[in-house]
Amino acid sequence: MNLNISGHHLDLTTPLRDYVTAKIKRIERHFDHLINADVILSVEKLRHKAEATVHASGADLHAEAVVESDMYAAIDALMDKLDQQTRKHKEKLRHHHVKVPVKRTLQ
Q1: How do beta strands 59-67 and 47-56 pair?
Q2: What is the pLDDT of residue 15?
Q3: 30: exposed, middle or buried (C-beta count within 10 Å: 0-12, 13-18, 19+)?
Q4: Which helix (H) or strand (E) holds 10?
Q5: Distance (Å, rounded) from C-alpha 68 to C-alpha 9?
Q6: SS3 state at 73
Q7: pLDDT digit string (tens) for 13-72?
Q8: Residue 7, class by beta-carbon neighbours within 10 Å (0-12 exposed, 13-18 middle, 19+ buried)?
Q9: Which stretches does DSSP call E strand in 45-107?
Q10: Cα separation of 39 and 51, whole Å?
Q11: What is the DSSP letter of 13?
Q12: Cα–Cα distances in angstroms (integers) from residue 12 to residues 24, 28, 70, 107, in the given order
């Protein structure tokens, strides 16, 4: 999977990059068919904002989280949202083609 991390009004440090990469690995564990992920971290006054767009097979998932405290909390909230979206997408794919057997009665 390709991972693009960018920062707006923020210096991207190595620990921030490593933290985002580790959290994305959790989403990859749930759903293997992730193609590309774009993560944007930004700071506006006291608001720390993390947003991501994940291109998966069959869907584009987008989430964002805004937290007042720190960037790591914003990344955690963002990854929780993306994790929930990927699990929901995976369930849709898994249960989409399930055929229910039809009982036939002999006459």
Answers
A1: antiparallel
A2: 95
A3: middle
A4: none
A5: 16
A6: helix
A7: 999 999 999 999 888 887 777 889 999 999 998 899 999 999 988 789 999 999 998 999
A8: middle
A9: 47-56, 59-67
A10: 6
A11: -
A12: 16, 22, 14, 73
